[in-house]
Amino acid sequence: MFWDKEWETLSRAELEQWQLRRLRSTVQHVARHVPFYQQKCAERGLGARAILSLKDIRRLPFTTREDLRATYPFGLLAVDRADVIRLHTSSGTTGKPKAMFFSKKDVAGAADLIARCLVMTGVGRGDVLQNMMTYGLFTGALVMHYGAEKVGLMVIPAGPGNSERQCLLMQDFRTTVFHTTPSYALYLAQFLKERGIDPRRDLSLRKAYIGAEPYSDETRRKIESALGVKVYNSYGLSEMNGPGVAFECEHQQGMHLWEDHFLIEIVDPATGNPVPDGEEGEMVLTTLRREAMPILRYRTRDITSVIRTPCPCGRTHRRIRRITGRADDMLIVRGVNLYPQQIERVLMSLPAVGHSYQIHLEGLDELIVKVELADASFDGRVEHLVNLQREIVERLRADLLVKPRVELLPPGSLPVSEGKAKRVFDKRIL
Ligand code: ADP
Ligand code: ZN
Asked: Options 3.40.50.12780, 3.60.21.10, 3.30.390.50, 3.40.605.10; which CATH number does 1-327 get?
């Protein structure tokens, strides 16, 4: 099933031709209206005419998160303020937030991409979407909401948290699809279990759109088996509209990235140079259709690779692999590089482990992993817990090449965050 078959199945040649045309007009647009890009292009002696092929994108400057913060609030706006119909911002955890502007066309464009994503996963009229992302300045909920309405789903703007109410809504309105973070999905599974609600027997859930945080295939499987749904990976970032940038189709082998809207490059995060075709690196995205706030070569910090083979679903937009982490998430412990996701993968493959964990770095270089156990494993038998702890330490050590200290906790002892979960606490004295 397609939302917009013509665009979704353009031949590669047509797609690339369109990309080139849009790249040139985007460069022209920002060079005319955004002093930040005017200056960067002038420094390089560049104009739209310098872009003769898609490869020439490498001559354009990168845009970083720091650039977005430095130009806050209006620095990257490319249209008259009166033409902006929506503002979103993205987390201001480290200083100034980033402001994202949408024109009427941009709001419609973002909704259209969500519509493609939803139809691609086999939902449509008659489906009920419970949207458990945060409504408000964050793009996660609203962008999904508009797209789902466009397709004709009934949308329940539930927002995050309040699991009691989530549960009632699911029961009373027969929710078929929900949208949330991996951490909340796992928490909800546990919550339903405690209340004696069996999702397969008592609820109508079919599918879940899970994103906004990196997670592993092990976590996907855990959510699928606990909630009786098919989980689709959903990738997006506020700087590129929010959700709907890349999404899994029914084949669930990587996420189609909508290449008529975004031009993708994979670069070496250290040098910014392109990596060989198909290899892993930092994803860099350029908007091709955005009006109010186009962005050239945005350094997402997200690590992934492009799948080169065509997808059996017939869509020609290339797929990216599951994000393995953010370039700045990498931890160095006793000289060894590791990503929080490696730890997650190991933990979630163990049935004894519950839905939550934390990674603490303390003292000089000590790695402490706090793990919530699943209900059944926390039976209070000391000997059982000692064995379990030993097993987790061994599994982590084998994978990470660093021996952690593992603390086992009863289910429900770690805090549940609304929105994105905080997993890593680095309190080392370095
Ligand atoms: P912030 O940058 O403040 O976290 P965003 O909401 O824009 O705010 O977050 C976007 C980021 O979330 C992405 O750059 C990526 O790191 C992460 N993310 C979103 N969806 C996924 C996903 N499906 N898998 C892995 N990471 C994801
Ligand atoms: Zn596909």
From this structure: 3.40.50.12780
Tokens for 114, please give them.
Answer: 């969500």
Q: Establish whether residue 238 lines the binding site of ligand 1, counting it when its CB lies within 6 angstroms of any ligand atom.
A: yes
Ligand number with the minimum distance to the CA of 236: 1
- Residue 235 Cβ contacting ligand 1 at under 6 Å: yes
Candidates 388, 381, 377; CA nearest to 410 is: 377
Residues forming beta bridges with residue 128, ordered by sequence position:
154
* Pocket flag, ligand 1, residue 90 (CB < 6 Å): yes
Query: Which atom of ligand 1 approaches the CA of 138 most closely?
Result: 6
> Looking at 152-275, which runs of residues are DSSP E strands?
154-156, 177-180, 207-211, 230-237, 242-248, 255-257, 262-267
| pTM of the entire predicted model | 0.94
Look at residues 322, 375, 319 and name the one whose alpha carbon lies nearest to residue 344: 322
Per-domain boundaries in the chain: 1-327, 330-428
Q: What is the pLDDT along the chain (430 residues), one digit of tens a residue?
A: 999 999 999 999 999 999 999 999 999 999 999 999 999 988 888 877 889 999 999 999 999 999 999 999 999 999 999 999 999 998 755 567 899 999 999 999 999 999 999 999 999 999 999 999 999 999 999 999 999 999 999 999 999 999 999 999 999 999 999 999 999 999 999 999 999 999 999 999 999 999 999 999 999 999 999 999 999 999 999 999 999 999 999 999 999 999 999 999 999 999 999 999 999 999 999 999 999 999 999 999 999 999 999 999 999 999 999 999 888 888 999 999 999 999 999 999 999 999 899 999 999 899 999 999 988 777 778 888 999 999 999 999 999 999 999 999 998 899 988 778 899 999 997 6
Instruction: Let me know if 218 is exposed, middle or buried by CB neighbors in 10 A (0-12, 13-18, 19+).
Output: middle
**Superfamily covering domain 330-428:** ANL, C-terminal domain (3.30.300.30)
Buried b (16+ CB within 10 A) or exposed e, 328-349: ebebebeeeebbbbbbbbbbbb
* 131 neighbors 139 (Cβ within 8 angstroms): no
Outline where DSSP puts E strands in 297-381.
298-304, 306-307, 319-320, 325-326, 331-333, 336-338, 353-362, 366-373
What the block records as the tokens of 30 is: 């920002």
State the distance from the centre of ligand 1 to the C-alpha of 321, rounded, in angstroms.
14
